[in-house]
């Protein structure tokens, strides 16, 4: 990609654009001066060095290129880079120490109401907000590395924060230590692909009022509360990893008021709850793996018409839990490692239905401290007898065709 | 002392019941681990062994062995040996053989299939539980001279710790569910060695679930290194206190 | 050598020994007799430290035996019914006791040879008859050349031949100047060996006399008759 870009740059500069070089050993030593000299279409090439120039504003359509990661320092006072022109490219900078303010949200790099901006191959270290797209369209944020070090939610901004935008591409970024790794609010028709979001204080991905988006092949690991997707319809969540999101209110994936969406081919492992669903409708949960979670799925009674099929449930403490007796969702052809039925006709599907909801899961839902007795001999007895003669658990909470062998997922 | 421990230890090892116990543990463990490619089922089997079989066999075998060796104890007493030494040797001999049986039967498959924190925790806790119930056997056999009564006491105490105690806790939990009793309940579990053992294993085995909800309270009280230390000290005191009481009683016993 | 002072023992409410005072010296061979349940075995076990007295004390070489154990090195004890770990062989039992005692003294293996035990060294204890078990017990009691021998019903269960062997051994040891304490209710057995007799009843010492005294005072030739006479005269009183 980089090479192609350089070649393009080479050609464009040969044809009609200038390259303005900035560096400690070059004639022009200040970035701000270079910007003021540049014409639309020019390239500013910044060489290695430490630049403390306060707030740098790019208000022309230029290519802003860093060579060997020049450092732009905000000295904890300024927003470092503000982009106020369309089609700007920012490539190869190390942006550090943006200011901190609760009202203005100063950022490492912020795009103000502009389109087609490309921000790539940058390192953002210790900024309040990392990269902020405000009301942008068709912007690309790619292969950036964002790190922050805060411990309190109030003193931390989000890694990649997108608001009221459309057709964005967030690809291959690595984000850790921010409040939310990636934050989407009123963002539509966008894709989040192959990002790694770990150890953020709140959510790995925070997603609200953002319809018609997809996130694919991302890794969300060890975030304070996992991933939250709320008040949205038509989201596609494919092939992501949700791992080790542990804690009091931590979920692999938290869904609230979601409808007409697809959760396919994801892997949920070692989360307190794999998926927590509240008020979701018409969601397809398919071909996912739920492994070693506290609760595989928590489906509250406010959910309806969701289809859960062809998933593997392996080694979860509880596979499914719910808070009511109303069941409006269907389970089909899942593999449950707790299934103890038989398959006489050898068609790979168990001959007796499986009740994925254990008595004890219901007990702990009403009285969480009963967890204290989990796996005690008496509870095992109670659970077994409930499996044979369901009395407390809803009897239509059932997988009628449980698989005998786990699916290759 | 070593001489007597060795004599007792070798005598127990020749006992067919101990051999059968080891073999049964081994069959259960190996087969449940081998059944599926993940170790979850094997771990659950061993958990149930630790919570159910180990206490039962340890307390019953030790009690019966003590009653059956009353003449041997008499023989030793007529020799120039301290009473304390005899009782301690019996305890160490019995404990050692129960631990050995558990280690060979369940410990080796554990180490082979699950040599991580869960496996190690189970191994340690299984050994401790063996010790606790051997100590309780010493207490129940010293309480009465009548063999059948002594075995009765042993079975009752096993039943109490393995089953009834949890029933009482469950009852309390639901009776007082409107009150903030989590912390009190944490303290209550210290009254049962099996529960202490179970929760320590649970914190390793079901880490994800234990982290959530009030699980956090358990994690905070049991899962910290201080909590771990306290749990182990409590388990150890479940070994030391019953044995110590039995020792005092044995010192003043007429044979 | 052994002094028993104001010894009292209660099992719950039952008084088994009440105010027993006795002194045994070296070279004496004492028969402890009395009806069943008179407290003979309890007395012996108190001396061995197996029963802990409710009141009173036992001195062994002028030292109290309470909380002590080393004095037992000088005692050989043959229990009434010797029972041993089932799966050990005779050889292993003898080896075990040797190891426990761990003494450097020369062993007295007279009985071992006399009873021909070496031939059946490999037999497990649980397969032995009562008599053979008694032979093992006797052998163990004499094995370490102890100063004091305490024999609880030594000849019960032994065949006449073995019984004779044991009696000869007891007499031999007596002549070496050892203190020997025998309980028995077979009075006829004791005639040739004992020098003193203690008769116990209901936890009390009825009388403690030398044989000479006893025979003289009753004008009888046999111990059993002499005792019968005493008992008769007392019941008439």
Automatic annotation (TrEMBL), chain A:
SUPFAM superfamilies recorded: Pectin lyase-like
Superkingdom to which the source organism belongs: Bacteria
Recorded metabolic or biological pathway in which this protein acts: Protein modification; protein ubiquitination
Iron-sulfur found in the keyword field: no
Keywords assigned by UniProt, alphabetized: Repeat, Ubl conjugation pathway
Domain (Periplasmic copper-binding protein NosD beta helix): residue spans on this chain: 156-341
Pfam families xrefs: NosD
Protein's recorded name: Nitrous oxidase accessory protein
Automatic annotation (TrEMBL), chain B:
A single GO molecular function term of this UniProt record: ABC-type transporter activity
Statement: the UniProt record of this protein carries the keyword Zinc: no
Organism of origin: Flavobacterium urumqiense
Key words, A-Z: Membrane, Transmembrane, Transmembrane helix
Coiled-coil region(s): none
Residue stretches spanning the membrane: 12-33, 45-67, 87-112, 118-139, 151-176, 228-248
Protein's UniProt name: Cu-processing system permease protein
A Pfam match: ABC2_membrane_2
Cellular component GO terms held in the UniProt record: plasma membrane
UniProtKB/TrEMBL annotation, chain C:
SMART domains in UniProt: AAA
InterPro entries: AAA+_ATPase (IPR003593), ABC_transporter-like_ATP-bd (IPR003439), ABC_Transporter_VariousFunc (IPR051782), P-loop_NTPase (IPR027417)
GO molecular function: ATP binding; ATP hydrolysis activity
Pfam family, one: ABC_tran
Gene3D superfamilies: P-loop containing nucleotide triphosphate hydrolases
Residue ranges of every copy of the ABC transporter domain listed in the record: 2-227
Keywords: ATP-binding, Nucleotide-binding, Transport
Entry protein name: Cu-processing system ATP-binding protein
Source organism of the structure: Flavobacterium urumqiense
